[in-house]
Amino acid sequence: MDLKQYEQAKFSLAEIIRSAQAIDSKDQELLSASRNLSMRLADDRFNLMLVGRFSRGKSTLINAILGASHLPTGILPLTSVITTVRYGSRTQAAINFNDRQLRQEVPLARLAEYVTQQSNPGNVKNVAYAEIELPVELLRRGVFFVDSPGLGSAIVENTQTTERFFPEADAFVLITSFDSPLSREENLALHRIRQTDKVLYVIVNKQDTVNEDERKQVLSFVQSQLEEFSFQRPPRIFSISARQALEGKQSEKPDLVASSGILPFEDELLRFLTEERAEAFLSNMYERVEDFLLQRRNLEREAEKQSMYESLLERLRGLREPRSGSLAATEYVEDKTSMRLILELDRRSGCQLCGEVLDAVFHFLSKYQYDLTINRDTQREHARRGGFCSLHTWQYENISSPYGVCTSYPELAHQMASELQRVATGADGNGWTKEKMMGLGSSQETCRVCQVRIDAEKRAIDRAVAKLQEADASPKSNLPACCLPHLRMIVGVLGKGRAAELLLKAHAQFFERIAEDAQRYALRHDALRRYLTSEEERRASQLMLLMLAGHRSLCAPWNVQSLS
């Protein structure tokens, strides 16, 4: 199982809970029980707590795992406030206070004003904890890095703050270093961690500061010290240079990343997340949901509703059966793949081509509506064409004024009156026909704005095709995001080949991602946890429709004939 499969299993459980709740929407006990289950699913988060003396490199290690210098180093070791690193739609910090319900969002650069001893001595600002939000894929799956204040600093509150968070941690990473391994404070922390019976990893950082013999001696010493604690699950030890790992990822030097020693730790962390932790959580949730459904079925007196609960139990068993037995973790490649297939979204429409066409239509209408107001020849031409099509008539109305319409459209209205009179009386000698009625007004062939839209669309497709052909030679290039109608057009022009393959794979990943955002939003909505939703999750409903159907201002109006 990978992290994606884990989330899909949660979403499937959420659907069963939602279906059970709908069996009787007036039953308050049913509503309460199902909502409690939804809350448990929505609140699922994994707190990976980093512990160690100040200046051990905790912030650098988090930056190295995330692949960029997100956390400011040299600041967090001075804090007496717990700082979590979680997923967010944009990079920012959020400060949570002990005496307020609402959190305060601040730029990451201002974090020091709230968490450092210099700017917030003795925590006079009453900060409960700080959150750093980053648009990093690993964090999107519910992983929270918890960066604790450094142990053993001159600030006594630092150690106390760190130890108070121990019960909230799901696993620990103790970071020591080759220059002074396992200090007194770190040994005390190990005693506390042993009492929690949580998974522990030990990082010996700064391996680039010692030679091979020194490294072996220090690692042997750390191993012997850890054995004295008699952990039920002996912690694994990793020799790492967080500084080299971060430098290698930022400069795209895989050899430097490999020599830093961080890859085995990342692999082990991912294995734990996708196997031990995921299996334990899902097993617990399966049992909870099954008990809930059985209890509701046994309490239910109506045979029809009993049958509904039995059907949901069958669905639940169907979800659980494929998971029986030992499961090997599948390779998690989403991050690596998405780095090479990045889609550029238009801010308004999602689809870049829709965005370009919208701009062209708006610029044309802005000028043309003014010409319609003052130019008699433009009014006559507009009337001769039958005006705009239905879609563009209302787009024109959005940017025009009542005065503009009243000076621009009488010519068209007079002409329409004459044509209707001629059709009604059969002035042309052929009498009234359905075809003549259907020919009144404008169509895509006669509407000026439709022609502008079509021409702009052709230009946008040509530019997109040229950009994709460049990306064929450089797969790391950003690709244009396209709605499904425009995606069909572009792939049709490209034909078979690597450029079309890259574009289709990128959009496959995108649609998979937005579907997950939508499912996550629905789950948190059910659980009354909408405050936990990210910007992407809140926008998922609109963006899904935009990318599946294209922007509403560019979609052709329905065919009236189809309604007859």
What features would you highlight for this structure?
two-stranded parallel sheet, alpha/beta, 9-stranded mixed sheet, disordered C terminus, 564 residues, 23 helices
Written description of the protein model:
This protein is an alpha/beta fold. The protein starts with a helix and ends in a 15-residue tail after the last helix. The strands form 2 sheets. Strands 4-3-5-2-6-1-7-8-9 form a 9-stranded mixed β-sheet, sandwiched between helices. A two-stranded parallel ribbon has the order 10-11. The chain is elongated and about 105 Å long. Helices cover 57% and strands 10% of the residues. The chain folds into 3 domains: 3-42 and 280-324; 48-260, 3-Layer(aba) Sandwich (Rossmann fold); 341-557, no CATH class. Helix 11 runs antiparallel to helix 12, helix 14 runs antiparallel to helix 20 (448-473) and helix 15 runs parallel beside helix 18 (410-425). Helix 8 links the parallel strand 8 and strand 9 (236-239). The protein has helices spanning 3-21, 28-42, 58-66, 112-115, 137-140, 156-164, 184-196, 212-227, 242-250, 254-260, 262-299, 303-320, 334-340, 352-374, 376-384, 390-399, 402-408, 410-425, 434-438, 448-473, 484-494, 498-526, 535-549, and strands at residues 46-51, 83-87, 92-97, 104-106, 127-134, 143-147, 171-177, 199-205, 236-239, 343-344, 479-480.
